[in-house]
């Protein structure tokens, strides 16, 4: 898609003497020296600035001087009215911009008569492409006597095209300003401050605008206050409008149907900065069609807007104006909402011969992005032919702004010097200066030029373009990794650990938010980060490390975890990351159950000897031991078993019982794997049968330790200590031996 926002390519037509549709009072024609567009390839619907330089083909002696630049029907001027300034900044005339032409008139007779030679000037204005093409077109036009070839791409949809069902979606409350430029003589600049009012749900905190904005139900009490209308503004009209329905046009989009709220329902403060009212009943659901054939739908509530139209006491001289407002719904406040409104439009001026003016423009480039824009102090010192300084003037300008100097006579040496902002201190500035008229340039913060015919800067306004490049100063830091593994768990020496770092944007210092990752090895060697803007407050965190069999990582210790980057941070800040890896332990419980006809002959306190053992696992040397379990079924727990250990269980033959014989011994599982933080529960069932009466058949004795019939683990991964206490079991470890 062709975009007006691309790199600006200024197209200048060659200088040719072509009579225009204007002349001075004596009938001398106006010649358009240059007509320049920001781009000749653009998308239909885009807005761009047109700059014009002109001169009178003759020697005017009196006003008026009229200049008219007709425009093609599809390149429509943006309605505007602005003052033309003389070489001393005085008002010498005006320009009116309409859709079809730019018309300027110099009316100051004395100003013209005092400058009869090579009278020339300039003006700029904005226009919008309204071609309406559906495919890319190439159009040849002659404007002001200069030939242009435009390539116009079709306007893109940008989400606003035809759709099947584009329903209105409530927007969050907002505050904005519309700068209303004067568009014809007698008008004054105005600003319309607007507050979009929507519901403030119960529980919403002031400032959480994203949670607000739904249509307001009937009966809610609304109060809106504009606290930003100061002594420099005069309220000329107020208005409250509301919409409880939306209509769907041919493009498929639903839009709000605003209507004025009757004055009788509004309660305004004496100074008209606060208004309150009660939300009216609202339509709901499908309402059919309006007379224009558009579908109507009720919102079930009402969206309101409050408008204040003000005039500006300084007639727009400040350029930018700020305003703050808030509102409540049933006492629940939005908090303050702010807006700025700026004048954007044309300008122009004119000078006569044997003098010259400089128009100093400012452009800021580089990798920094500022808010607010930095200001540069520009000084112009004027020296006569003897080298004596006889005048000096200065101005403060920002990116996109300009400074028009006084007019100086031929032979004057003008020295332009700029001072870059002292703050923020994290920016390195460089400068390039280009002199459009003479072709001179400088790669520093100072430039000088003599007003002379040879330098083509007499009788005209010559542009001196000051371009400053802002380069962010960058820093870095280093990081090291240490792993504490006192339990000797098996650990991959080549394991990688990821350390993330991030910082927030700082508009006052000119840098955006950013982030990065460092890959560390646990060898203590420092690893450098990527480049980070000086002044950034960096926060460091470590990602979770890969799991280790039988072990558990403790929370990393990061020192420092937050710091501010300076130009020499890389040599001063080393982030040390320490992780401790500890062994995880589980437990084993064994409970005795009895079955058979002789079970009642076994005393509850009879003990049975169970042996357990496990081989080396995850760096643990392994171990073994024995426990005594009683016939009453009380579980006996063996603790401190390393996670992952495979424990094997056996039982000694139980002691004989008078009148009975042991016939079977079955573990629920004779081999169990330990899980950290859990208790593996095993039951051992012994079968004992009562001996038969004399003459009966005896049951053969069965040696304990028969085949496993099944196993069970306590559910969950609870803390081991809690399990032991909560289970109410006996922790009994006897004659346990630990293998070396």
Report on this structure.
The protein is 2% helix and 50% strand. It has 740 residues and is mostly beta strands. It folds into 5 domains: 143 residues, Immunoglobulin-like (Sandwich); 169 residues, Immunoglobulin-like; 119 residues, Immunoglobulin-like, CATH 2.60.40; 95 residues, no CATH class; 153 residues. Strands 1, 2, 3, 5, 6, 7, 8, 9, 10, 11 and 27 form an 11-stranded mixed sheet that branches. Strands 14, 15, 17, 18, 19, 22 and 23 form a 7-stranded antiparallel sheet that branches. Strands 16, 20, 21, 24, 25 and 26 form a 6-stranded antiparallel sheet that branches. The two termini are 76 Å apart.
Task: Provide a quick synopsis of the model.
With 740 residues, the protein is mainly β.
Topology, number of strands: 59
pLDDT below 50 for ≥5 consecutive residues: which ranges? 1-21, 158-163, 702-740
Largest sheet: 11 strands, mixed
Q: Assign the CATH architecture of the largest domain.
A: Sandwich
Q: Would you tell me which CATH topology of the largest domain applies?
A: Immunoglobulin-like
**Class based on secondary structure composition and strand pairing:** mainly beta
Overall geometric form:
elongated
Distance between the ends: 76 Å
Strand content: over 45%
Overall pLDDT metric: 83
The percent range for helix content is: under 10%
CATH class of the largest domain: Mainly Beta
Cα radius of gyration in angstroms: 44 Å
* Count, helices: 3
The domain count comes to 5
